[in-house]
Specification:
Layout lengths: L1 E4 L8 E2 L3 E3 L2 E4 L10 H6 L4 E5 L14 H21 L5 H15 L17 H19 L4 H12 L10 H4 L7 H8 L1 H10 L6 H9 L20 H16 L10 H11 L6 H8 L10 E4 L4 E6 L9 E5 L12 E4 L8 E4 L3
Antiparallel strand pairs: 1-5, 2-5, 3-4, 6-7, 6-10, 7-8, 8-9
Helix pairs in contact: 2-3, 3-4, 3-5, 4-5, 4-10, 5-9, 8-9, 9-10, 10-11
């Protein structure tokens, strides 16, 4: 399996992972001749697919949660958002149920290195982002040895961290390109709006509310809505900030293109100097595949290939399925796997950005 842009789809590729729009299945895994669906998928804002072809056959891309749990989370969250839009209130019952499913999946896979980003359409961007952010936050919380009750509160907060966006102007929220100052002030309101929505729910405790309110605060006081400094920001909000930033920059958006895991980690490390907690970031990175399975990488001997598997103790040196076409197209030598932990004279020199 590997993730490819729609523009790179070829007739021999087969869909490796089902594709959804607002939790309705668009294409089921196993669908072939994918090139015939490209215009239709593009109309939903989908830019890439997980596919299987000759060079990626047998490559697994691990996720921390099952596809069933992802669908359950998005369904429950969609119901909450629709309820808030209708009358400003929501029931916590559905959220509690999916939080338990999330925790069960994650606690059963303590050592997984995340390679997979869920692919969403333009319309369900908030759902996909909220679930991804929650998964990343829980993986970090697990690394911190948080108790199960604390992980549950963290999950509630991160799953609902953008709930305030439901009552913002969607034209501003999904505007392509840079926001002007007035538009940005409008979007910033989602933190306080989300806090007030959760405050109106008698079954929601203060910890999830703080995640809503503070996930855009930064250690140096440059964040919003209250320009808090390090010691004033709750640790759950610091966790959510890292998870939120990571998913936002590694996912395709109407206003920016996705970047690679490696580039995203470099950005977060730069921000850890002043804006995000460096100790939490160091733990967070332990859950991330720097070169995810299915990524095309270029090697120092002039060959290229697809990342097949991870070496958890050395994430910069994965196992690569090498494609040796140095003699030109049509002269590709037999595919072979190279473990960069064992072949020390080879290094990764570059990778394809998403």
């Amino acid at each position: 399996m590997r993730k490819v842009l729609l523009s790179m789809i070829t007739p021999e590729m087969k869909l490796a992972k089902s594709t959804y729009h607002e939790n309705s299945m668009l294409l089921v895994a196993g669908t072939n001749r994918l090139n015939r669906f490209i215009p239709w998928l593009a109309s939903y804002g989908i830019t890439a697919l997980y596919v299987e072809d000759e060079v990626s056959e047998g490559i697994e891309i691990p996720d921390a949660i099952t596809e069933e749990t992802r669908c359950k989370c998005k369904t429950a969250l969609q119901g909450v958002l629709q309820s808030v839009q209708a009358d400003g209130s929501f029931s916590t019952g559905a959220i509690s149920g999916v939080v338990d499913s999330l925790l069960e999946d994650i606690l059963n896979r303590p050592d997984v290195l995340i390679s997979l980003n869920d692919i969403g359409t333009t319309d369900d961007m908030t759902l996909v982002h909220s679930v991804n952010t929650t998964v990343f936050a829980l993986l970090l919380g697990q690394r911190m040895d948080l108790s199960v009750p604390m992980l549950q509160k963290l999950a509630e907060g991160t799953l609902l961290h953008d709930i305030g966006k439901t009552i913002l102007d969607s034209k501003i929220l999904y505007k392509p390109g840079r926001l002007n100052a007035e538009e940005f002030e409008h979007v910033k309101r989602h933190t306080t709006l989300g806090y007030e929505i959760l405050k109106c729910n008698p079954l929601m405790t203060e910890l999830p509310r703080l995640v809503c309110l503070q996930h855009h605060e930064r250690l140096d006081g440059s964040g919003y809505p209250n320009a808090l400094h390090s010691e004033e920001i709750h640790v759950f909000s610091k966790i959510a900030a890292i998870a939120d930033m990571y998913d936002a920059i590694t996912s395709e958006r109407c206003y920016h293109h996705a970047i690679s895991n490696r580039s995203a980690v470099n950005i977060l490390m730069r921000d850890s100097v002043t804006k995000i907690d460096p100790e939490l970031l160091a733990l967070f990175i332990q859950n991330i595949a720097i070169y995810p399975n299915g990524t095309i990488v270029y090697l120092s001997d002039g060959t290229h290939g697809i990342v097949k598997a991870q070496n958890q103790s050395m994430p910069h040196r994965p196992v690569v399925r090498v494609i040796d076409d140095r003699e030109g197209i049509g002269n590709v030598k037999k595919l072979h796997d190279v473990d960069l932990m064992e072949t020390l004279n080879l290094t990764i020199t570059d990778e394809d950005e998403p």
